[in-house]
Amino acid sequence: MLSLLTHDLGKKLRFARNFLGRRMVHVNLQILYNCNFRCGICDFWKDDYRDKGRLSAAEAEIVSNKLNTIGPQIISIGGGEPMLHPELVPIVGALSRHHFPVMITNGSLVTEVLARQLWQAGMIEISVSIDYADPQKHDAQRGKPGAFAQGMAALKILHATRTHPEQRVNMISVIMDDNLDEVEPLIELCRDMGITYLVTLYSHNRGSKPAREPASNPALRLLDLKRRHRSFVALRGYLAKFPAAVSRAAPGRCHAGRNLCNIDCRGEVSFCIDRLDKPAGKILTDEMHEIATRLLESHRTNDCRDCWTSCRGSIESVLYGSQRLLNAWDYYQMTRPVPLQGRF
Ligand SMILES: C[S@@+](CC[C@H](N)C(=O)[O-])C[C@H]1O[C@@H](n2cnc3c(N)ncnc32)[C@H](O)[C@@H]1O
User: Fold this and answer.
1) What angle do CA 279, 285, 286 make, to 5 degrees?
2) Which among 47, 85, 168, 187 could disulfide-bond with 125, CB atoms 3.0 to 4.6 Å apart, if both were Cys?
């Protein structure tokens, strides 16, 4: 127990200070946009993003050092498909020196060797995207035959190869207009594997997508599932605001720019992953304090109510939500250690 607490203690204390001071705590980082899937809900694999290149390990080192001046943060590595990046392991190593790297992947490229290398490089959480319990529906949404089977195999490998109890494996689903009935069977699959389950609400702003948020209020159903299934670790404050988000009746003030931001594979910083067209600077060349000032300015002038994805919603719930103690408890459950070889 003591060794768990003291593991990375300095970094954790600095993160706690950042968190309690409501500073920048979460960064989404697209290390490339290339993808081997053709998801119907995402535009990042399309032509507009094709020539953007990728962030090198040397550049990730610069990103890590610069963010550390206002850090540490949880850095969510994504893309595109991050596992297509040939330097993924050194990138994780560079980020974990100062921060807490987590990753979202479609799972198709996970091998035992690579999984072990990622954990050893300091990854603290990996989430695999699975949106439907019906393999055919998942494969169709992801534009890739075999996607479901690959994702499930990846979850098992990732969970079995963890090297420290604080490393976590999640399944994550995007909640859309046609997959609410899939959630309970997916939670049950997670329970059986000893891993945890998360959701994020569909955003029509990722590129230019049609509205596919659930038509009816999904919150009561999700909160009931949360009450009945321990492995469903989404925050109650986050789930409770799905109706407000779906009806665009203002889920609350967005804290992007202050508590979270986005960095793309060229080092372009913006306050939000859905607002790549509103840059706040280039982290590879600009001074961090200038970027941070511009991000805060974006935050001050931003009145966007268009999304309630988990990056935005979880942070807002735990830092500003009305039931902060409840959300803090849920946040602890979402991040607490899971014994090696054990179950949640
Ligand atoms: C863009 S993907 C990149 C990582 C990886 N390729 C994957 O599929 O998980 C990151 C996460 O965003 C989710 N996502 C994609 N399009 C979305 C949308 N329109 N709204 C909300 N989440 C979305 C994906 O399902 C995934 O969980």
Assistant:
1) 60
2) 168
Pocket of ligand 1 (CB under 6 A): 35, 39, 41-42, 44, 78-79, 81, 104-106, 129, 172, 174, 200, 202-203, 206, 209, 309
Positive/negative CA dihedral, 332, 306, 208, 32: negative
Three-class secondary structure of residue 102 per DSSP: strand
CATH topology of domain 24-335: TIM Barrel (3.20.20)
Ligand 1 centroid to Cα of residue 70, in Å, is 27
104 with 127: CB under 8 angstroms? yes
Residue 48 pLDDT level (bands cut at 50, 70, 90): confident
C-alpha distance from residue 185 to each of 57, 135, 334, 342 (Å):
39, 12, 20, 21
Mean pLDDT of the chain: 93
Q: What is the pLDDT of residue 249?
A: 67
| 147-161 vs 183-193: helix crossing angle, rounded to 10 | 30
Asked if pLDDT for residue 303 goes beyond 90, the answer is no
| Residue with CA nearest ligand 1 atom 15 | 42
